[in-house]
Amino acid sequence: MAVGGLPKVQTGSARLIRFVRPRIGTREHTMSSDEIADDGYDTDSAVAKFLNKHPKTIKRWDKKPELKALGWPAPIVINGRSHRHRPAVREFLRNAAAAHLSNPSKA
Questions:
Q1: E strands along the chain, which residues?
Q2: What is the 3-state secondary structure (H, E, C) of 73-94?
Q3: Domain presence at residue 21
Q4: Cα(first)–Cα(last) distance of the chain, in Å?
Q5: How many structural domains are present in the chain?
Q6: In terms of residue numbers, what domain contains 76?
Q7: pLDDT value of residue 56
Q8: Residue 60 belongs to some domain of the structure
Q9: Does 49 map to a domain?
Q10: Which pTM value belongs to this model?
Q11: pLDDT for the residue 92
């Protein structure tokens, strides 16, 4: 905690992990056998809802090279709407969690 009881400002992957870590293992993010086999596409708004983020955040993440290095999937435009490959989004979450756990200073 910083001065005045406010949390320190986090940057980069620490900010990303802040939302990933509390959701790992929760019911909404536990994959069933049906989800593992499903390799469809979701719109950016559906991905944002899954990640509990604003849809504009999803667009901003496309510009961040550190997230691309963790496997953030590139958008696929279908009928003028951006979509993401569902397994690629889940793989990104696994990579982000592993990157966070491998960095002991941010755990």
A1: 41-43, 76-78, 81-85
A2: CCCEEECCEEEEEHHHHHHHHH
A3: no
A4: 15
A5: 1
A6: 41-107
A7: 96
A8: yes
A9: yes
A10: 0.62
A11: 95
